[in-house]
Design brief:
With 231 residues, the chain is α+β, with helices and mostly antiparallel strands. Helices cover 38% and strands 16% of the residues. The strands form two sheets. The chain has a four-stranded antiparallel β-sheet with strand order 1-2-6-5.
Length: 231
């Protein structure tokens, strides 16, 4: 586990940015326009993706904020075909149970417009799988250290990873078979780490589709409440 300095030391703010209101508006709109083009896909091209691109996107995710800067995450990047096939086989074993009724009627009905099922060929075809683990506790000098706000921190880092991958021109699919303990064994990760998600990463093939319902996003007035200063 990486060590975190136990004492406080203040540093001048690095990388300070000074941008105008016009520049902020322009950049915010550019980012929104970029993120509007992000789509979850299941039909991947076998086109390879350089390992450096994956590692750089993970490095970007590692800059995410976290409780007490404990950085309670670990990312396992897999391109080995045999390893991907083992992940797929174990994931599908759990998915068969889920779609046979283990997920419950309400959850299965909610998934119907998405068109998912127990068969997960994309776990073999996508050139990379990234397994995201949350570290529930760490160690320093042989002592067990509790991590705080782990779901929040890992969630932020995962969002940053997905954004970085999209910015690099890649597509991904979030996959959460339940339970996922098998990933600890396959990836040789310790018991203090909980698998959170599998990301299938790569380029869409020529027949890639998205569910029509996925294009229906809530309007701004449904996801935002503003208490503005009175002029």
């Amino acid at each position: 586990m990486s060590e975190i300095a136990p004492t406080y030391q203040a540093l001048p703010l690095p990388d300070r940015r000074d941008v105008s209101d016009a520049e902020m508006t322009r950049d915010a709109n550019r980012f929104y326009d970029l993120m509007k083009t992000r789509h979850t896909i299941r039909e991947y091209s076998p086109r390879p993706v350089p390992a450096e691109v994956i590692s750089t996107c993970i490095r970007a995710a590692g800059t995410a904020p976290s409780g007490a800067n404990q950085q309670p995450w670990h990312f396992v990047a897999i391109s080995d075909p045999a390893m991907k096939s083992r992940v797929r086989a174990a994931a599908e074993e759990e998915e068969v149970k889920f779609y046979d009724g283990g997920g419950g009627d309400a959850w299965l009905k909610a998934l119907e417009p998405i068109g998912t099922g127990a068969d997960k060929p994309h776990l073999d075809i996508a050139p990379w799988l990234i397994i995201i683990f949350a570290q529930r506790w760490g160690e320093r000098d042989g002592e067990r250290i509790k991590h705080y706000y782990v779901p929040e921190g890992v969630g932020i880092a995962t969002g940053m990873l997905i954004t970085a991958l999209h910015t690099a021109g890649l597509s991904c699919l979030t996959h959460t078979p339940n339970p996922m303990k098998f990933l600890n064994d396959l990836c040789d990760r310790p018991d203090n780490e909980k698998p959170i998600m599998i990301l299938a990463v790569g380029h869409p093939n020529d027949e890639a589709t998205v569910p029509a319902v996925a294009k229906k996003k809530k309007p701004l007035d449904e996801i935002m409440t503003v208490y503005a200063a009175k002029e």
